[in-house]
Amino acid sequence: MKKLVGENYTTPDLLAKVTGKARYAEDFRADGMLFAKLLLSPLPHARIRSVDTSAAEAMPGVRAILRASELPAPADTVTDLGETIRANPMGERALTDEPVYAGEPVLAVAAVDEETAVAALEAIQVDWEPLPFVVDPLVSLRPDGPSPRAEGNTWGRAPVESGKPPGPLTVMPLKWKAEDFADYDQGKMPMGEPQIDWNYGDLEAGFKNAALVLDETFSMANNQHHVLEPRTALAYWRGDKLHVHTGTQSAVQTVASISRWMNIPLEKVVLITEYTGGGFGSRATGAVICMVPAILAKKANAPVMLRITREEEQYIGGIRPGMHGRVKAGFAKDGRLTALDLFLIGENSAYEAQGDANSGGRFISLLYQPPAMRSRSITVLTNTPPRRAQSQPGGLQAIMIVEPVIAKAARQLGIDQVEMRRLNAPEGKALWGPAGRDGKRGYITSAFLKEALDKGAELFDWKTRQARSGKRTGSTVRGSGVAVSSFVAGSTGFDGLFVIKPDGKMYVKSGVGNLGTESVFDVHRVAAEMMGLRWDQVEVAWGDTSHPLPWTCVSGGSQTTHAMTRAAHAAASDAIAKAQEIAAQTLGGSPASYRVADGRVSAGGRSMSLADVAKKAIELGGKYDGHTLPENINKVTTTAATALAGEGLMGVARDTYPRDGTTVSFVAGFAEVEVDVETGNYKVLDYTAVGDSGTIIHPRAYGAQVLGRSVLGMSHTLALKTVYDQHYGVALATRLHQSRPPTILDVPRNMKWDAVNLPDPETPVGARGIGEPPVAAGACAVMNAIAAALGDDVFKRAPVTLDSLLMALEHGRPMQEPLTAHI
Amino acid sequence: MSHDDAHRLHDVPASVSRRNFIKGVIAGGAGVSTAAYLFRSGTLVSGQARTGAVERLITLTVNGQTRRVDVAPQETLANTLRYKLGLTGTKLGCDRAECGACTVLVDDVPRYSCSVLTHSVRTKKVQTIEGLADPDGTLHPVQAGVVLEQGFQCAFCMSGFIMATVGYLKKHPSPTREELAHGVSGNLCRCQDYDKILTALHRGSELARGVTRG
Ligand code: FES
Ligand code: FES
Questions:
Q1: Cα separation of the two ends of chain A
Q2: Domain ranges of chain B
Q3: Which of A118, A363, A589, A682 has a CA 20 to 30 Å removed from the CA of A554?
Q4: Would you place residue B35 in the very low, low, confident or very high pLDDT band (cuts 50, 70, 90)?
């Protein structure tokens, strides 16, 4: 049997990447292609009274102008389970006549080139009516605070009489009482009426029995995704079929989004998305802005390219919700948590709410296993750009808010930081979150976080570093920090599809997005290994839905490795069963006596090649070559499989494997920093991370996720933030250099990664996802290392900037305004 | 900010004249994006009046070939390469010298092609990612290093990093890991697996010197 799982290999897209042949959206050309430009709102909240486009329309070279009123109404969504989710009339669209943030696209022009399009935009007269706005969630929560929309500052449902179904989600006002803000000026986060409130265990008793109780406020900044490839799109129509070239995290599910946005049937959408320059959650199912070239292409009857600029990307590209948190935590003398009370205030745009604030508490309940816990949260809308899920959404913010409290408690109780996390760590099928309707708390599939901590402590040489932590040499002090992190890591129920043709090769259809995680290829190595094929006998087709692809998860929330290795396993199991039947029919004996290995199906002395099995499958037809398909597969897969029917032995199946618990992965991160107390400058000297995410499929891709996402996490500690002019409500950090992701010089030169590599018992391949949990591990290990060097209470918000450290060191207390957003 | 200041925020638009407010905001940045990053087709009526006396049809030496190309005076090298010469391996991540995705070699020196005017390289040699491998397909050692180590993730930054490395190695053929990191520090990767990127590029530097490993 060829071993592919757990081995390194060269992905089939790499040669095109290194030679510059890989084509991302902006690299395509179409005959007669026009260019589009967007008019952005200069105001944080306004209504368009009137627009005069006559001068622009008369300009030579201008081919079409698109207003928001011309956008089709978005269609409702019908989920895989047949549930209908109504399109929300207050949700984000590609263009609007009532912008709710500065920088929001309001109209677009298509012209023969961009210069002409911009000249046309400048000739368009817009009469704006400015409207009240707010760019700070706590300002909006004040009793008479402004709201970002006339309807209010939160999403909610109007109360209904009992027995009646709840109304639709809508924007409504939620204001707190003046007394809730009593301690605001002392930097204590106010805690008024929450939207979500859950608890378990006896909180009061937990605090009463605690040897140490801490009550801390911490804030973390909003920050952009900063994907390097902006969300550019090229669109054209061939007959009534819309073709879109754009980046996305999911080839298959983005077809569904485009069909919903455009309100056209699924089969009228073709998506070309072979390469995507990063996603990080911001383009899970593409980006709504691709509607603009799509509709302009129809109006102008020509292909339209909309190149998104870096500034535009800052507005429409997505922002991780910033968050304020307040934590009251009780600890026994031995360091064990006795109770934890968490309140999170998440910020959101005036569009669809992200669940970050609501979901954060779950990860805290899992990571530190407090015997009693309460989690309250609220999500407040402001006139700032759309929030989108960003690697470890909610988990990152909550962990950044709680980890410093755990570190502070360990220092006060005199307990080693690694030991502190170890003794509170989850184990096995650990419980998490609140009780469900059945009164029982949920649990996860498995946890080996203690093993990850042990392995990391050894690899990082924690003891040696800990011994020198906090010691000063000249003007510099070293500090070492450890942090734990977790996030959901896998979904179920998707489909696998491949054909083994009479040439003996396996042709796989991959519906996964190619955004750099390599799972678009990695997951199929499971099927290839099961079929006993070498990797050079496997061809993977991806990223072009004109050749239909099977139903596949979105590559977000670390789902893919888990979900799609299961689907690949199911498809391979299907193909093996069929091959066994064909061999038994052809050579005699029972199907069960046959084994598939080395490209052959064999039993005792009887054997036939998979190439011959493929020929036989075509002769037999029916289920063998895909003329008859399983009933439980998604209709998207049925279409894709039907297109392949008759070409060979088909493996096609839905993942119906059982799973007991929620799939979650963990990472333990370790960092050492050196802080110059005279300048406030600090440097991350070293970093090590160890993952617990089951069996590893592709070690190098795995290491890239562990360290790459750890550095994304560090960017939250080191630098990234949005900055707003609170007076005018406009963004001041509109480019990379004003909110700069770490460069290669900002991170240690030799980082280390490793993994526990113990299989998850609840999935046939044993693999869970790893994309998310490194983020908070990286962010918090560095943050904790800074605190270890300088002591507690030097900083109360992230990013931890040099000036804030310097000011705090000079004055002996944090000098920031802890609760103002976007500063 | 005090409580009172916080309250005053939403009154601002009413107390500022709308016209000045919008003007101020546009000057402050929200409107800037439409004025940058412009691609011109070079064939358009509206552009012709502005071209003045500068000759537009120029000869460029790109990847060892001479190419005649119609270039507007304000056109950047990145746009000429991508839109006139079909060399789309050079990427645009920011179009303003912030990310390095557009790095090419101009007379063997790494330059941000988004911030170089095409007219300024008329007498120079330009090399892009497409010109690195031999015509028979043999990869440049730096490309080979990336393939051997499975370097980079989404790879949108990759051609810039590779060109920056090739340029750096011309002057520093035997860099340490640390030195090479400095050599490519003008390039940004948002997938941020700098560790494996550096391993791959450093492997490339070894291959370029003929260092083999078991
Ligand atoms: S595109 Fe030239 S530096 Fe970013
Ligand atoms: S690999 Fe994605 S930006 Fe560098």
A1: 58
A2: 1-214
A3: A363
A4: very low
CATH label of the domain that carries residue A338: 3.30.365.10
| Distance between A382 CA and the closest CA of chain B, angstroms | 12
Q: Count the domains in chain A.
A: 3
Helix (H) or strand (E) holding A34: strand A34-40
Asked if residue A118 lies in contact with residue A367, where contact means CB atoms within 8 angstroms, the answer is no
Whether residue A341 lies within 8 A of chain B, CB to CB, comes out as no
**pLDDT tens for residues A426-480?**
999 999 999 999 999 999 999 999 999 999 999 999 999 999 999 999 999 999 9
Burial A194-231 (b: 16+ CB within 10 A, else e): bbbebbbbebeebbeebeebbebbbbbbbbbbbbbbbb
Residue with token string 């750890």: A710
* pLDDT band for position A12 (cuts 50, 70, 90): very high
Is there a contact between B37 and A42 if contact means CB atoms under 8 Å apart?
no
Q: Which domain holds residue A762?
A: 319-490+661-811
Q: Which of A312, A304, A153, A184 is nearest to A235 (CA)?
A: A304
> Average pLDDT of A710-714?
98
Does residue A591 sit in the same domain as residue A692? no
- Is the pLDDT at A10 greater than 50? The verdict is yes
pLDDT digits (tens, 9 = 90+) for A82-104: 677 788 889 999 999 999 999 99
**Nearby residues of A148 by Cβ (< 8 Å), 6 or more positions away:** A45, A100, A133, A134, A140, A350, A381, A382, A383
User: Mean of the pLDDT values across residues A516-529?
Assistant: 97
- Residue among B91, B94, B158, B162 whose CB has most ligand 2 atoms within 8 A, to mutate: B158
3-state secondary structure of A457: helix
Subunit contact B28:A229, Cβ cutoff 8 A: no
Q: 3-state DSSP: chain A helix, strand, coil percent, rounded to 5?
A: 30, 25, 45
Report the distance separating Cα A543 and Cα B56, nearest Å: 39
Cα distance between residue B25 and residue A72, in whole Å: 31
The lowest-confidence range among A103-107, A714-718, B46-50, B120-124 is B46-50
Q: Which of A40, A112, A744 faces B31 most closely, judged by CB atoms?
A: A40
Structure tokens at B113: 């092609």
SS3 percent helix, strand, coil of chain B, rounded to 5, is 45, 10, 45
| β partners of residue A664 | A488
pLDDT (mean) for A19-47: 97
B166 with B203: CB under 8 angstroms?
Answer: no
Confirm or reject: Cβ of B98 under 6 Å from ligand 1.
yes
Q: What pLDDT sits at residue A160? A: 82
Residue A110 touches chain B, beta carbons under 8 Å: no
Q: Please say whether the beta carbons of A255 and A223 come within 8 A.
A: no
Task: Classify burial at A264, counting beta carbons within 10 Å of its beta carbon; exposed 0-12, middle 13-18, buried 19 or more.
Answer: middle
What is the pLDDT at residue A425?
Answer: 98
Top mutation candidate among A11, A228, A514 for ligand 2, by most atoms within 8 Å of CB: A228
State phi, psi for A154 to the nearest 5 degrees. Answer: -145, 160
Q: State the average pLDDT for chain B.
A: 82
CATH code of B1-214, in short, is 1.10.150.120
Give percent of chain A above pLDDT 70. 99
For residue A144, how many other CB atoms are within 10 A of its CB? 8
Structure tokens given for A52? 């005069």
Structure tokens at A706: 């562990």
Do residues A511 and A652 touch, judged by C-beta distance below 8 A? no
Closest to A29 (Cα-Cα) out of A256, A224, A305, A262: A305
In a domain, A219, yes or no: no
Do A798 and A746 share a domain, yes or no? yes
- State the pLDDT at residue B53: 55
Distance A2 CA to ligand 1 centre (A): 44
ipTM of the complex as predicted: 0.97
